[in-house]
Specification:
The protein has eleven helices and 16 strands. With about 325 residues, the protein is α/β, with parallel strands linked by helices. The chain binds S-adenosyl-L-homocysteine. S-adenosyl-L-homocysteine binds next to helix 2.
Length: about 325
């Protein structure tokens, strides 16, 4: 609670450890608002509706969302903003960024504190920040990869005798070579189940955006990033951002098991193009200087191009049974 990474650092932004899509361009939060407005209409425009953002970082996405939402006065009047955040320092930053809209925003620390109302959940780079576990194929069994102290009193990777239920492994584990790693993230699945239950019971939808893979697979995606550079996870513990890629198949299973519909997984590229990022960029660039226009183009490329964020990042939309989300490119 005191020394943890999110509790004690300012992770997001140029001066932090990593940059996220809302920090690249205002268009990201604006287009998410467009998706939410259309999805809200598709679920019969409930009033009130909660917009719950999980892990809102610096509050930038919500700032751009609220400005864009003003284009639809009915939607703007219906929304109750709930920001779900555990980090005290980021909560403080969100309060500064969103000071003008503070009357309509509540800060919560868990989704259990939401009201029993229709809710549209938004989560950008939230799932990857939740804890995960690794198992390593060792002499035919799969043992948990843990961090311990070696004979020189340094942090090192060690194996625990704890194994994994073989039924949780993807097909073909028998033929994987020694040392192969498999990752699971029970807290990500648990929170998805919780969100799905909320949507099933009270109505609503979810937009998850994160880096990850479509199908459960073997491989080591554990990554530590500090000051925009990848470092060993054992260097500077508590001061680097630790993540792994999201296994969207596991997320989709957790959602479906709890009674909601999951759209086909889309790439961030398809999602932003479907929502009209090119038209929005053209509009934003009107009457701007050539330099500003070039910056807008660079930002669009960073968000959608396949060699940048466009295809590594995926978009998963969940919706209450019997309804459809706004087009998501999936
Ligand atoms: N969505 C933001 C920030 C992503 S970083 C953006 O796109 O810029 C991850 C965010 O999740 C941070 O705000 C972090 O404090 C928050 N977070 C991490 N674990 C959390 C948890 N268990 N519950 C709520 N928020 C959490």
């Amino acid at each position: 609670p005191e020394h943890g990474y999110y509790a004690s650092t300012n992770p997001v932004g140029k001066k932090g450890d990593f940059i996220t899509a809302p920090e690249i361009s205002q268009m990201f939060g604006e287009l998410i608002a467009v998706w939410c407005m259309q999805t809200w209409q598709n679920i019969a425009s409930p009033n009130p509706v909660q917009i719950a953002e999980l892990g809102p970082g610096r509050g930038t996405l919500m700032h751009d969302f609220l400005r864009a939402a003003k284009s639809n006065p009915q939607f703007s009047k219906a929304i109750k903003i709930k920001l779900i955040e555990t980090s005290p320092s980021l909560t403080k930053e969100q309060k500064t960024t969103l000071a003008a809209d503070a009357d309509n925003i509540d800060w919560l620390t868990t989704i259990d504190q939401l009201n029993p109302l229709p809710t549209i959940f938004i989560a950008n780079e939230f799932l990857d920040a939740l804890p995960f576990r690794q198992f390593v194929k060792t002499k035919g069994s799969w043992l948990e990869h843990c961090i311990g102290i070696d004979e020189n009193n340094e942090l090192s990777f060690v194996l625990s005798p704890t194994g994994i239920d073989l039924q949780r492994l993807p097909p073909g584990h028998e033929t994987q070579p020694e040392g192969t790693i498999f990752e699971t993230a029970p807290p990500r699945e648990a929170i998805t189940a919780n969100i799905a239950t909320h949507i099933k019971t009270h109505g609503g939808a979810t937009l998850f955006i994160d880096y990850g893979h479509k199908t459960s697979a073997f491989g080591n995606t554990f990554q530590a990033v500090q000051s925009h550079k990848t470092i060993s996870p054992l260097t500077n513990p508590g001061q680097s951002d630790l993540t792994s890629h999201v296994d969207f198949q596991a997320i989709i299973n957790a959602a479906k098991q709890n009674g909601v519909h999951a759209d086909k997984l889309a790439t961030q590229m398809d999602f932003l193009l479907a929502l009209g990022i090119l038209e929005r960029a053209g509009h934003l660039g009107r009457e701007k200087t050539p330099r500003q226009q070039a910056q807008i183009q660079t930002d669009v490329e960073r968000l959608v191009s396949p060699d940048q964020m466009g295809t590594l990042f995926k978009v998963l939309c969940l919706i209450e049974p019997g309804r459809e989300t706004a087009p998501s490119g999936g």
